[in-house]
Amino acid sequence: MAxxxxxxxAEGEVISLRTRQHWLAPVVQAAYPLILVVVSLVVWVxxxxxxxxxxxxxxxxxxxxxxxxxxxxxxxxxxxxFWRWSAQDYIITNHRxxxxxxxxxxxxxxxxxxxxxxxxxxxxxxxxxxxxxxxDIMTASEETVDRYKWLNRAPTFKKEMLNQKxxxxxxxxxxxxxxxxxxxxxxxxxxAPVSAPPPAAAGPMSADQVTATLDRLADLRDRGAxxxxxxxxxxAELLDRL
Length: 242
What we know:
- By secondary structure, the protein is α+β, with helices and mostly antiparallel strands.
- It folds into two domains: 11-173, PH-domain like; 207-240.
- It is 46% helix and 19% strand.
- It has helices spanning 24-29, 31-47, 54-86, 125-130, 154-174, 207-222, 228-240; strands spanning 15-19, 89-93, 96-101, 107-112, 116-122, 132-139, 144-152.
- Strands 1-2-3-4 form a four-stranded antiparallel sheet. The chain has a three-stranded antiparallel sheet with strand order 5-6-7.
- Helix 2 packs antiparallel against helix 3 (54-86) and helix 6 runs antiparallel to helix 7.
């Protein structure tokens, strides 16, 4: 049966390590229910020595009932702590670190590997002996993203997280970078230079020829093919040939 955390994985996301809190964590958290069970058992045993008749018998019944209730409540409390512990999922994938907690109401938090800057691991002497520790995941701004307390196999968890981060960084560097922009359109070919009308043959010209030539020269001047000075010079030359 798939666990709740498996339903949160994205397409192509692969789990490389799955763990939870160390088994000592629920033992410590269940300390009060365990104490309640032990005390209730002692009271129940002591109540058996009370007499069975009269007021003593009634007291025995009341004490026995209270002891039984304490035992039931304590056992339920211990069971609830261990049930909550068994529902934990601390997962490392090839993209992120994912934490899922809760029995019926689920709480999930994740940290993307590319945003993780460092991880700070604290282990007491007992943590080193039993293999647990507290892991703080840090971002580039040196703010704690999430904290994993009583983490089982804490050194292995940290090592695997950093290995997956390095693998992801290498994959991103090997990916071809997309083109910065689409190739620029080829520049339109420059218009062919407009040549000035060929010089008229030497000799006199008719008025119609001079007018037509001046019109062409004016058009070239307006389009910037010739300068106004060149236009005036040609105009004077043509007028002289009337």
